[in-house]
Design a protein that fits this description.
It contains one helix and two strands, in the order αββ. The chain is mostly beta strands and 84 residues long. It has a domain of 49 residues. The chain has a two-stranded antiparallel ribbon with strand order 1-2. It is elongated and about 60 Å long.
């Protein structure tokens, strides 16, 4: 995320996935879900630029390096469902 640029943001929007490189070790991962306001600019045929605001489902992954193996608390039966 330190090297996040508008080009990387455009790629994420286009392909809807991301890869990150992290060093070997133990990590705790928290997944947050919700709806966030997204603003995009659109250029019309007459070259007029307009802004479009939408609410989009969003997942945020918080990855923290730990010294020891973290306790396993995942719930794989949890339904990640965001209703708008």
């Amino acid at each position: 995320m330190r090297e996040f640029t508008s080009e990387k943001g455009a790629t994420l929007k286009k392909y809807k996935h991301a890869n990150i490189e992290i060093e070997n070790g133990w990590y705790s991962v928290t997944i947050l879900g919700g709806i966030t306001r997204q603003v995009s600019e659109n250029k019309a045929v007459n070259e007029e630029v307009g802004k479009l605001e939408t609410m989009e489902p969003t997942f945020e992954f918080i990855i923290r390096k730990t010294i020891e193996k973290p306790e396993y608390t995942a719930n794989f039966s949890y339904q990640f469902k965001i209703e708008t």
